[in-house]
Design brief:
Length: 272
DNA sequence: CTTTTGACCTGACAGC
DNA sequence: TGCTGTCAGGTCAAAA
């Protein structure tokens, strides 16, 4: 479900409700996520106060004095703030309650997400340590992409979706940025010129920033921490456009499978 | 080393 | 009202 803009939206929405709040209860309804929720997590979190919340790639990090709660939403995960006595719903697997009588609820029907704990530097956690650069970081540039692409013969779409190259770009935004940059998603990453990577890097930043501003893309179930939907789905130019014409040239759009993910493009505009 | 494939899950929807 | 097949904002390990 969530890519960088959705995860960022969720983090921003959660902060006012949970930062500086003391955890009162920890409830695990189902620990069978992508990885089991660690058994000792209740002990680790007990009576801790959330110091800050931030994002690395698609991971959400909640820090406390004793360590860090690492959350990944997988395909279908959401984090919601509800009154602590609100009845628990289906697929709410993990709930924290706080001194302010609010609760943080992790809901994930498909259970592809993860809830983990570390008492070390979370950025050095095995799942996070290999993550590539943040696309909104100033050091994310055309030159960075160009250099990293040198050994990559794979399709450019798979290259920019590779979290070890750059984090946070998933299927929706990969399709959107390549359409904006007029690059065919099948182009081998190592054959793209520095000039085209300049355009691509610029579009990645522009589109991700815009999507954050619009509070993410709601196709099925993305909402912020208070249940509010995003609106970037209204700005999508290519993702999900089956049997539609290109908004730039009116050519009928094409969709294929690339690495098991549906890939949309315009044969005329993205014809390099 | 890079690239491809299968696996992990539930729910929604189309077609019979 | 079923049943079956397909698809979905992700990503890891194993195989090639």
């Amino acid at each position: 479900m969530p890519e960088l803009p959705e995860v960022e939206t969720i983090c921003r929405g959660l902060a006012p409700s949970i930062v500086q709040q003391k955890i009162i209860t920890i409830t695990i309804y189902n620990n069978k996520l992508r990885y089991p929720i660690p058994k000792n997590i209740s002990k680790s979190l007990a009576k801790q106060t959330i110091q800050k919340i931030y994002r690395r790639g698609k991971y959400i990090l909640l820090t406390t004095k004793k360590g860090t709660l690492i959350i990944h939403l997988g395909m279908s995960g959401t984090l919601q703030i509800k009154p602590k006595n609100h009845p628990s719903g289906k697929h709410e697997h993990f709930i924290l309650t706080f001194a302010n009588d609010l609760s943080l609820r992790y809901k994930d029907p498909r259970r592809f997400g993860a809830i983990l704990w570390t008492n070390k530097d979370p950025l050095k956690h095995p799942l996070l340590k290999k993550l590539g650069i943040e696309p909104l970081d100033n050091n994310f540039t055309a030159n960075y992409l160009y250099d990293r692409a040198k050994s990559k013969h794979c399709a450019v779409k798979q290259f920019i979706m590779n979290n070890e190259v750059v984090t946070g770009i998933g299927n929706i935004y990969a399709n959107e940025v390549l359409f904006a940059a007029k690059i065919n998603p099948l182009t081998a990453a190592n054959t793209i010129t520095l000039h085209r990577y300049q355009i691509l890097a610029k579009e990645i930043k522009k589109i991700l920033r815009s999507a954050i501003k619009h509070r993410g893309t709601t196709i099925q179930d993305h909402t912020d921490s208070h249940g509010k939907q995003g609106s970037f789905q209204n700005k999508l130019k290519i993702y999900g456009k089956f049997d539609e014409n290109c908004c730039r040239c009116q050519t009928k759009l094409t969709h294929i499978k690339l690495g098991q993910r549906t890939t949309f493009f315009c044969l005329f505009c993205q014809n390099n």
